[in-house]
Amino acid sequence: MGLILLVDMDSFFASCEQLKRPELKDKAFVVGTGVESRKEKSVVQTASYAARKFGIHSAMPFSMALKLKPDIIYLPSDDKFYEQTSEKIVGLLKSYRMKMEVMSIDEMALDSGTEDYPSARMIAEAIKSRISNEIGLQCTIGISTSVVYAKMVCDAFKPNRIGIVKRAELKAFLADKDVIEILGVGGKTKEKLNKMGITKVSELAKVPATRLVDSFGRFGAELSRIAKGEDETGVVEGAPAISIGRETTLDKETDDINEVAGVMARLAKEAIEELGKRKLWYRNVASKARYTDFTLRTKARRLSNYTDSYETALNTSTELLRDLLSNGKVRKVGIRLSEFSRQSGQAKL
DNA sequence: CAATCGCTTCACT
DNA sequence: CTAACGAGTGAAGCGATTG
Fold first, then answer.
1. Element of type H or E holding A260
2. What CATH number was assigned to the domain covering residues A12-77?
3. Which CATH superfamily is domain A173-230 in?
4. Is A169 a catalytic residue?
5. What is the pLDDT of residues A183-222, one digit of tens each?
6. C strand bases under 7 Å from protein CB
């Protein structure tokens, strides 16, 4: 494994919108989930940099963004366009013929194949200028000895820069970081660590690995390695999907299966389309419901055979949802397909 | 008692 | 000042069940 380059697009969705509408440049706006008419019930997916100055950020309810900046511009998410743009970027990166992992719609990890820092920097500079010239977007590239560290370097250098942290500098780089900055550590894990008296990565490094394994299982061992600068997570090419799902919030809360039939049909159709793109068959269908009190429940069924049938997906998910609706009114419904087989028949996972 | 099932929790964006 | 605000996608974790 060579040095890892982690390419992360800067405020990707917002920047895509600026590509479509250059007049948005320097404007404070957000790209939110859901259509314009339902923006009060939506969440910020990406805030433009001008909007971030007001404290607006991803995952923030749009209602709160409005309080921070009453004249903030709202744009509904144009997923198709972001997807197309992402594919262009992936295509551009593929031309470098390095091992690549598409981590998400706006994030790709590359194995440079070289241990030489100046060489890695030159590659990163070339990539960065090509993305700028050919796509018209800015990105940040983090370079380090593993995917996890490259990601953390990328975050530290955002936006619009190339950051390098060499093996010898890793300890110092990690030491003063808060544990929340570790890839895979979210709010819950941070709280648990804090209760153990651990706030900084340097403190995490001093805790015996066995203690972390006791509290966090497999992830505990990984946490320990990361904290000590010993992580060696490499680029995994083309990791297969484990599940494909679609969900949406309803216009009106209901416990009537007939009122959500149309919505389920659309979700099932979209999920099956995605499945078809990846040439997969499924054997498990799950339905999901978020109730008015915000509790979440799912119900799943395994089929006797692999299939790519839309009707089976719709009929099964509707049946499962009917069950979920007997518990009360719901605000959101979803479908998820899993347990895949490549194309037809009996092939094992 | 390990594998599997059905479901919940967690981490991102 | 704390609680409330609250979309969508995906993987991992976990307790109960089972062969």
1. helix A257-277
2. 3.40.1170.60
3. 5' to 3' exonuclease, C-terminal subdomain (1.10.150.20)
4. no
5. 888 888 888 898 888 999 999 999 988 888 888 888 888 8
6. 4-14
